[in-house]
Fold:
Amino acid sequence: MGVVVSSGLLGMLLGLTAGTGFLLAFAFAPPFRRVRLVDRLAPYVHDTPAPSRLLGTATQPGLLSAARRVFGPVLVDGARLVDRVLGGRAWVRRRLDALGEETSVEDLRVEQLVWGGLGLLGGVLVAGVGSVLAGTVNVLSVALVCVAGLVGGVLGRDWWLTQQVQRREELLLAEFPVIAELLALAVTAGESPTAAIARVVRLSGGELAGELDAALGRARAGVPLVEALQQLADRTSLEALARFVDGLVVAVERGTPLAEVLRAQAADVREAGKRRLLEAGGRKEIAMMVPVVFLVLPVTVVFALFPGLISIVSLAQ
Structure:
């Protein structure tokens, strides 16, 4: 009976795969595929030969690029559907800017679709193994597991983006006191704020130094330094970093003293870091009580009461 059920399940999966393939081939066939304006104009505007790949930046082969090459049109349509269902493009764009990457919202939607496909594949595997072990196929359970895998993969990529932003903000806060004090030292030595930023960026590394270096790069490209620094403040949700950038902007525009302000900001961030450590220690202390109360204490009680219980039982017999 088990062999018959497993063969039926295998036939169902093969039929589903074949049907999906025929449906995709039919939906994206040239007579039914919508021609975009970009595709119509491409032969007339792309008349110059493509530049050499040696002149461009090297791209690392990854899951996203491979999936785009194989399932390009399907991924684009799926990304549009995910964007319409989830929405929140402004919030996603803000988190991508805070992450400091050049990834667009469309790229993130494609990654969410890829994660959803992997979750769907995991759900199909789990449902198939469960059906084989149970000896029967519950269509509702299989559908729920597959949908849960798909939704979990799509939402999991969004959750991972939030975790990446939080870790980067923690790095920025950890690097901020050192960068602020180095800037204060350079300004105290007589350098202008712009020269002090350039010196600190040249001598240090990290996320915050990279952000300041990017701001200087935009300033060298023609953007006013004040505007470049303000873009840095707009991309982050850290209040300490926003105050730091505001102090730099005021010093660049009006020539106000900057060293004491930077030292005070560095001291405030260090105090905030100490408070966060104390709060994290308090949470860990509460979490450490869970194994003590639910594991160690019951075992101790059992060891204390078990000999007496055995004596009572033996006397009763």
